[in-house]
């Protein structure tokens, strides 16, 4: 019978094996130096480039139940945090293998579930000592010795290049201070004007030679002057890099000399001069080496902190949208105020008639089609439907609807219509013929932003329209690249819709590789949400493997504790003295299995970032740190000291190796711990589900044995 039991145990946990196999495909996606993968569709021979766990799982043909559960778990993490999916995927595979090893050693399922859950909870409590508040992070970044070197050249280039092209930064300055947005472009002396602008913003300070002199509190008020991009440093006179693809031709504009007093991003603590530019620097420490997205995010942060917020200058993620332009080099990526979207050439022709003209705008909270009905609409009773969807080209009723809708728009002198949903193609053609621009598939956040800026009120149906619902002051123009040219990408034309005072910002993402477009957008949103969740948590974890190393040290310490006999509470919990005793005896084995997940995590990250030539070398390095932490007597103190010195799991390269600086890296708190919990919950769910599915020739023998009460036969 024991042999039969072991045979069934080895054969029935197919779900864990499937999880481990699926997770194996995502090993190269772990850490800051990810290796991209091409996913090829064999039926169409089309391929896409992915660099995240969520895109990997989406692209795979998942037919098993375990694969579907893994997909749902990763999708839930992505929907809530937009980060931590690769960690979740890897730990799912690592802990699946660890559980399988425990099963091979005849560890009861109940003991595995109990000890692993308790071990993870204990780790989450233990690593709280490695959390640091955002306020303390900013103070450390201000006083850090690497800050002047890090930002001496790099942030000056961000300032000079600002929104990754000078013209976009000029337009931001114009949008803040000037009633009209006429942006002169001259490629001669933009560098001089930018430094003059810095001097104007910090005119009461000691000059541009010191980092600390750029930001000072104004009197006793809880406000600060934000210079340049919010993280601008010294050495603005000489560009250090001219060959990089991320820097464009210089231009010129006249900046506003108006000084502004802006609140820090943490209410009640913004009297600290470090607060006002800490967001831009914090974005860099959370970017994990994604420099292109980091520069865009720093530009967005700088703009939002310069804009007046009525007493608060929080980072507002709802004011950020993206527009993907395929066909332009990545150096054309920039941040543009307003709403940038892609329209057809026919729609773009209408824009030429709107040049330098304020437009009357209408917002539609739904579809602009004859068949659209709002959610919750109840059809009238005792009405017989003859035809549900008549053809608008053949039916007179359809022509009547088109004519009536167009008459409504013309009667209220509407120039621009933003629609949340889809737009009837026939109505679109008639609107273009009457010089009315209709834009569909606009998000709710964009509608809200234009509603606040233009006083327009959204309507569900055009028949509800009245004069109070139509806003004014919107403007439309062709989006211009960094060289000042309007872009025509063939089938689609990028267009910018704006209004005075609108806080909306569009990150224009460009690439010449079609399969890379989704990757570029994903990387940008990951950086945005990392900063967003860091501010929501109000704290961050020490990065660079510090948290995982402490978890590994803590679990090993728990596993080495002497075994204690099962107490009354354990007997009561497991409903059986035998199970309680098994959990106590197997505790060390299960904890070591749990620790193996984090050990593999650190090893793979070190290999992916070229900090170790092999996993064996990486494991040796991890063991070396564990031994030194144990000898120190306080693993957390050792890890904290190594992190501050920059020697924790350090190798030949890192996410900021290009800067030649030891810039510290931080991680999100909630996103990381939730990734751990979701990974372990998924593994234990599949474990317990598999444990109740028994197959094989020994079924009847098990059914007649004294162990049959432990199984549920379906």
From TrEMBL:
Biological process annotations from GO: chaperone-mediated protein complex assembly; photoreceptor cell maintenance
InterPro entries: BBS12, GroEL-like_apical_dom_sf, GROEL-like_equatorial_sf, TCP-1-like_intermed_sf
Source organism, top-level taxon: Eukaryota
GO molecular function term, any single one: ATP binding
Descriptive protein name: BBS12 protein
Organism field: Anhinga anhinga
């Amino acid at each position: 019978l024991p042999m039969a039991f072991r045979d069934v145990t080895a054969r029935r946990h197919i779900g864990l094996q499937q999880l481990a196999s699926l997770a194996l495909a995502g090993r190269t996606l772990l850490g800051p130096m990810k290796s991209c993968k091409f996913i090829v569709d064999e039926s169409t021979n089309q391929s896409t480039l992915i660099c995240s766990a969520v895109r990997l799982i989406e692209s795979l043909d998942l037919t098993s139940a375990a694969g579907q559960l893994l997909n749902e778990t990763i999708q839930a993490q992505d929907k809530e945090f937009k980060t931590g999916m690769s960690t979740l995927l890897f730990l799912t595979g690592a802990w699946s293998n660890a559980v399988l090893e425990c099963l091979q050693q005849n560890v009861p399922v109940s003991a595995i579930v109990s000890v692993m859950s308790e071990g993870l909870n204990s780790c989450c409590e233990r690593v709280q000592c490695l959390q640091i508040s955002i306020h303390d992070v900013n103070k450390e970044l201000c006083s850090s010795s690497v800050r002047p070197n890090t930002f001496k050249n790099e942030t000056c280039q961000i300032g000079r290049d600002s929104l990754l092209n000078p013209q976009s930064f000029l337009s931001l300055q114009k949008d803040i201070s000037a009633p009209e947005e006429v942006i002169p472009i001259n490629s001669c002396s933009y560098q001089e004007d930018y430094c003059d602008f810095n001097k104007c913003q910090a005119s009461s300070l000691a000059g541009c030679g010191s980092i600390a002199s750029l930001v000072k509190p104004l009197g006793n008020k809880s406000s600060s002057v934000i210079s340049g991009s919010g993280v601008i440093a010294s050495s603005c006179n000489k560009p250090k890099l001219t060959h990089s693809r991320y820097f464009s031709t210089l231009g010129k504009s006249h900046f506003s000399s108006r000084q502004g007093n802006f609140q820090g991003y943490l209410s009640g603590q913004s009297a600290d001069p470090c607060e006002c530019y800490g967001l831009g620097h914090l974005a860099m420490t959370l970017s994990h080496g994604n420099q292109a997205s980091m520069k865009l995010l720093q530009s967005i942060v700088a703009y939002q902190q310069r804009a007046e917020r009525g007493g608060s200058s929080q980072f507002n993620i709802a004011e950020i949208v993206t527009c993907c332009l395929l066909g332009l080099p990545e150096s054309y990526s920039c941040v543009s105020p307003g709403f940038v979207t892609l329209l057809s050439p026919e729609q773009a022709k209408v824009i030429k008639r709107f040049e330098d003209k304020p437009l009357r705008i209408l917002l539609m909270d739904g579809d602009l089609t004859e068949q659209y009905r709002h959610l919750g609409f109840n059809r009238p009773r005792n009405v017989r439907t003859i035809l549900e969807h008549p053809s608008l080209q053949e039916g007179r009723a359809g022509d009547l609807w088109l004519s009536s809708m167009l008459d409504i728009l013309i009667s209220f002198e509407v120039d621009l219509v933003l629609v949340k949903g889809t737009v009837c193609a026939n109505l679109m053609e008639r609107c273009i013929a009457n010089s009315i621009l209709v834009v569909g598939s606009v998000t709710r956040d964009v509608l809200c932003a234009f509603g606040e800026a233009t006083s327009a009120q959204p309507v569900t149906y055009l028949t509800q329209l009245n004069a109070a619902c139509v806003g004014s002051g919107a403007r439309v123009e062709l989006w211009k690249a960094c060289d000042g040219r309007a872009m025509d990408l063939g089938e689609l034309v990028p267009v910018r819709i704006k209004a005075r005072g609108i806080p909306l910002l569009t990150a224009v993402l460009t690439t010449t590789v079609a399969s890379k477009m989704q990757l570029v957008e994903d990387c940008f949103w990951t950086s945005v949400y990392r900063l967003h969740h860091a501010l929501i948590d109000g704290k961050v974890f020490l990065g660079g493997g510090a948290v995982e190393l402490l978890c590994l040290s803590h679990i090993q310490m728990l596993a080495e504790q002497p075994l204690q006999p099962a107490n009354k509470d354990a007997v009561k919990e497991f409903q059986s003295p035998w199970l309680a005793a098994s959990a106590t005896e197997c505790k060390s084995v299960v904890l070591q299995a749990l620790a193996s997940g984090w050990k593999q995590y650190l090893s793979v990250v070190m290999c992916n970032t070229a900090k170790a030539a092999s996993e064996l070398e990486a494991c040796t390095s991890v063991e070396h740190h564990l031994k030194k932490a144990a000898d120190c007597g306080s693993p957390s103190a050792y890890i904290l000291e190594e992190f501050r010195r920059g020697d924790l799991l350090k190798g030949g390269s890192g996410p900021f190796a290009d800067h030649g600086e030891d810039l510290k890296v931080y991680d999100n708190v909630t996103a990381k711990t939730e990734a751990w919990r979701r990974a372990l919950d998924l593994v234990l769910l599949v474990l317990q589900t598999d444990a109740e599915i028994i197959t094989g020739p020994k079924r009847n023998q098990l059914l007649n044995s004294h162990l049959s009460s432990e199984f549920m036969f379906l």
